[in-house]
Amino acid sequence: MNNNRRRNFRSRQKNNFRRRNGPISGSNNSNNFNSNGNINFNRNGSMNNIHNVEKTMQKFQQLAKDAQSNGDPVLAQNYLQHADHYLRRFNELSEKKENFQEKTKASENSSPKDQVQDQEISQNTN
């Protein structure tokens, strides 16, 4: 055996350890993982937090300004495309938030008598 050769790293398996994407199963099938291959891409819901999306959008806008001032229009355009992606995601999340607020406001404004009538109507149609 060649002692100068580096060994490949092997992680230890612990059966009582829980990963973020669910418990470890006893089988060694690779079908248990997501088929899209992006298991760790969207960690901690970062694309669902409107504040994180806004900060990331502003970061790419600033990077684009810096690249433009340094005379690199290709890199500036790249950063602007990234900022545009996050702007679209920010608008989606803002719209969802507004719709949710309108929905909860409408349900709070309806009287309990209206809610009882709505329940009776839904029960009668079933």
Could you please describe the fold and organization of this structure?
The chain is mainly α. The protein has a domain at 51-90. It contains 3 helices and 2 strands, in the order ββααα. It has helices spanning 50-69, 73-109, 112-125; strands at residues 18-19, 22-23. Strands 1-2 form a two-stranded antiparallel sheet. Strand 1 and strand 2 (22-23) form a beta hairpin. Helix 1 (50-69) packs antiparallel against helix 2. The longest helix has 37 residues, at 73-109. It is flat, with a radius of gyration of 25 Å.
Topology:
Layout: E1 18-19, E2 22-23, H1 50-69, H2 73-109, H3 112-125
Antiparallel strand pairs: 1-2
Helix pairs in contact: 1-2
Could you list some keywords that capture this structure?
single chain, 126 residues, mainly alpha, two-stranded antiparallel ribbon, flat
| Rg computed from alpha carbons, rounded to a whole number of angstroms | 25 Å
Label the structural class.
mainly alpha
> How many distinct helices?
3
The order of strands across the largest sheet is 1-2
Fraction of residues in helix:
55-70%
- Molecular shape: flat
Low-confidence stretches: none
Please provide the ordered H/E string of secondary-structure elements: EEHHH
**Rounded average pLDDT:** 76
N-to-C span: 75 Å
Biggest sheet layout: 2 strands, antiparallel
Number of strands: 2
Provide the β-strand percentage band: under 5%
